[in-house]
Amino acid sequence: MINEQYKSMLGAKSVIRELSEYATARGKEVGYENVFDFSLGNPSVEVPKEFTDEMIRLLQEEDTMTLHGYTPSLGNPLYKEEIAKSLNERFGMNYGPEHIFPTTGAAGAVAHAVRAVTRPGDEMIAFAPYFPEYGPYITGAGCKLSVVPADTSSFQINFDKFLEMINENVAAVLVNTPNNPSGIAYSTATLQRLADILREKSKEYGHNIFLISDEPYREIVFKGADSPYVSKFYDHTLSCYSFSKSLSLPGERIGYVAVNPACEGADIIVPMCGQISRGTGHNCPPSIIQQAVAKVCSLTADLSVYETNMNIIYDTLVELGFTVVKPGGTFYIMPKALEEDSVAFCKKALKYDLVFVPADGFGAPGFFRMAYCIDTEKVERAMVALKKFVKEEYGK
User: Which CATH topology does 4-47+302-394 take?
Assistant: First the structure.
């Protein structure tokens, strides 16, 4: 018999993907340059030349079996060494290659981390607004996901609700900073308080509560934002990263889990991830991509356009009377809709070829997300359409 669990998931299609498909279809009718598609977080800046040069060098100069053969089950040693070195130099950590596990992007990293520090039946806590795919990652590991309601005034952690919800069955807490969908970076004060609570509750419950930090937007941080490295605050942290955004390599599916060397089980979590891979069929990211990224892991693409776009959109939203918290990073912004029903708001926007994503699925009903990883010229034209939409539909 077929698996009923996965069969039932077929009806729960991604709203983001559906809207992106709509935008593509609409683009065939009116020209995609005339569709203001803010739905999908696909990086819009060029891959660094150094990455392209290294790929060419590898293909021209290296032995084909070195390039395309199986890697060790725990990853390419050079990749692991270079990641550890980069993290140590940038954040004052003391990772070794034994603390790094290569994965297929941050999604693969989070999925492995969840399985490494929980048992079926355990509870995990995440904070709204949150990436909806956390649900399948966590329930797929046999755990229960509990979501702390958002503090919509700041989109920092709602600690009052968190303290109400945390209990002895919680094995791990999952954070995402800078955050998709809000664009907010958790501040030093937020992370310090979170760490203090986790230490206190770990002692009270008699077991360590792990912290899983999902941070694919770590490098997209705007001027003046307070966005420290999460693992500096709490020993029992697993950092989950992807080069999809920093190097504009989403299709290459390359990331890693970095286990804090002070973490419980730091000497065995990476080998455990290797065993988790056996059960999930993960079996390492592509060999050549591990080798190429190893050479450029401390670099980024030119990410400055995202801050330029954010400022244009934020200023326009404020001018039009939207309630919106200014992002500290990423390429997302999450304003409050001009009516209670954000789905209805987003449907009305489609008439003006503005493609927004209702934030209900992110745990923030009444808000909507804009992914502004598009050309600045198109952002500027979109703001003209946004002003027309707001005036004609809401009289502002």
Answer: Aspartate Aminotransferase, domain 1 (3.90.1150)
What does the angle CA 219 – CA 225 – CA 231 come to, to the nearest 5 degrees?
55
Question: What separation in angstroms does the CA of 382 have from each of 76, 111, 240, 327, 328?
Answer: 44, 36, 34, 19, 22
Position of tokens 């609409």? 26
- The alpha-helical segments, DSSP class H, found in the chain are 4-9, 15-30, 49-61, 64-68, 77-91, 105-117, 134-139, 159-165, 188-205, 269-280, 287-296, 304-319, 342-350, 376-394
CB 214 within 8 A of CB 131: yes
Q: Under CATH, what is the fold of the domain 70-296?
A: Aspartate Aminotransferase; domain 2 (3.40.640)
CA distance 256 to 198: 24
Q: What tokens does 112 get?
A: 């492995």
pLDDT: is 267 or 281 the higher one? 267
Please give the pLDDT value at position 28. 86
- Residue pLDDT, tens place only, 227-248: 999 999 999 999 999 999 999 9
User: What would the two tokens of residue 43 be?
Assistant: 């990086």
Domain ranges of the chain: 4-47+302-394, 70-296
Rounded to a whole number of angstroms, the CA Rg of the chain reads 21
Record the pTM.
0.95
What is the DSSP secondary structure assignment for residue 202, as one 8-state letter?
A: H
Q: Out of 18-27, 142-151, 177-186, 280-289, pick the least confident.
A: 18-27
149: which residues sit within 8 A by CB, 6+ positions away?
Answer: 128, 158, 161, 363
Tell me the two tokens of residue 332.
Answer: 């997302």
- Pairing type for strands 170-176 and 210-214 reads parallel
Region 26-53: mean pLDDT is 91
CA 3 to chain centre: 29
Say if residues 282 and 103 touch (Cβ distance below 8 Å).
yes
Is residue 359 within 8 A of residue 129, CB to CB? The reply is: yes
pLDDT of residue 329: 98
Asked if 129 and 179 count as a contact pair (C-beta separation under 8 A), the reply is yes
